[in-house]
Design goal:
The protein is mostly beta strands. The chain has two helices and six strands, in the order E-H-E-E-E-E-E-H. Helix content is 10%, strand content 43%.
């Protein structure tokens, strides 16, 4: 199972606040389900779009798998309030885990360790 490390609060927003685009500078041919890994980086000055659900501080975990989402397309433009480009991974069907699973992340898409994957109860 692939995973993608995403800085907070963006990882939280994908799983809980309807963030339907993950902005990147690079393209991918991957399509399908991947694990959302909340990276160790917390962007304290992040500006979520107006009228977006905001996380409580205790809900913003880092260095953990927090859920799964489907990557359904890659675009260079989108009407979503979350799109900032230059490349947008179009996301659908976010599924949170009951509790975060601590895990070290990596750059790009990476393979989840089998022991962590077993604990996800897919």
């Amino acid at each position: 199972m692939k995973a993608l490390s995403i800085q907070q609060p963006w990882a939280w927003a994908i799983i809980y606040a309807g963030k339907d685009i993950e902005n990147r500078t690079w393209n991918t041919h991957f399509r399908g389900t991947f694990a959302v890994h909340a990276s160790g980086t917390l962007m304290r000055d992040a500006e979520l779009p107006r009228r977006s659900l905001r996380p409580r501080p205790e809900d913003v975990v880092t260095s953990a798998i927090i859920g799964f989402v489907d990557l359904v397309d890659v675009v260079k433009g989108h009407r979503s309030k979350w799109f900032q480009g230059p490349v947008g991974f179009v996301l659908a069907d976010p599924r949170p885990l009951c509790s975060p699973l601590p895990c070290k992340g990596k750059l790009g898409f990476w393979e989840m360790p089998s022991d962590i994957l077993r604990r996800c109860h897919l």
